[in-house]
Design brief:
82 residues; mainly alpha; Helix Hairpins; 3 helices; 0% strand
Length: 82
């Protein structure tokens, strides 16, 4: 189980992007490496899903902020390479 489960876990909504990503990496490692009980594995999976969603929300918010600041000057990587 991830290290954070030994202490009181923060609510997913309170985590920064970096915190959520680090914990998500721990969850993935735990699910890949340990032979956990099914119930524990399900709890880890659910936490991982919530962490992944949190990262997605924070990335979307960052992208929106960059677009607002840069305006029309922002182009997608795909457009740039063509």
């Amino acid at each position: 189980m991830p290290k954070s489960s030994s202490k009181k876990e923060k609510e997913v909504e309170e985590l920064s992007y970096e915190e959520a990503l680090a914990e998500l990496e721990e969850v993935v490692s735990a699910l890949e490496g340990e032979q956990s009980q099914l119930e524990d594995a399900i709890k880890l999976f659910e936490r991982g899903q919530a962490l992944a969603a949190r990262c997605g929300v924070l990335l979307e918010a960052a992208e929106l902020k960059v677009k607002q600041v840069a305006g029309d000057e922002v182009m997608d990587f795909e457009e740039e390479s063509e």
